[in-house]
Amino acid sequence: MRQQALYNARQAASRLGHKASSKLNHLSILLVSIEQMSTSSRDSLVLGRVIGDVVDQFSPAVALQISYNGRRLMNGADFRPSAVAARPRVEIGGTDLRQSYTLVMVDPDAPNPSNPTLREYLHWLVTDIPGTTDIGYGREVICYESPRPPAGIHRVVFVLFQQMARGSVDVAPLLRHNFCTRNFAVDHGLGAPVAAAFFTCQPEGGTGGRRLVLRPPRTT
């Protein structure tokens, strides 16, 4: 869809005058930038096995910016428990204030990456977040619980969904452990994610048990 929009912009630019053409060329550059950012984000989610373990393949469509104490989250970055004790600042992109979003934060490696019997552990759930705003304007359904992994290196994953309507996600999960992001999305008609991000977390003074290596998943 973005490639078609880029093609249309370039075709229109070739038919218009210099001033209009300049504006459309700027739009073309912006579309290329968005496409590159989406591809980079998707690649890191595949390498970190977020796509596969937590969500299925999807195309990022909305900007999602997350930061802890001013440090912006980059996919795969390491944050120790002390750095994520307080809930992060989360900014949602989009173009329409009337559009609502749901944010899910889970740990697919609980309690131990070698034996994740509690997969997924739900750390946070916020719904009805208006587009172009931040998490503070949403409705906190499950309060933020900071990651405190007992052993190993855990992935902590944020997944953003676009809601059908404000108030359409109104049921809180009964338990935090063994939450399933895929099933939650199906139950509430959320469709595919529109954005996702993740960081890694391990015990404060530890060196980690199993090292998280960003490599493509195995194929059979």
TrEMBL record:
Question: Which family does the record claim for this protein?
Answer: Belongs to the phosphatidylethanolamine-binding protein family.
Tell me any Pfam family this protein matches.
PBP
Identify the PROSITE patterns for this entry. PBP
Name the record gives this protein: Uncharacterized protein
- Give the species this sequence originates from: Setaria viridis
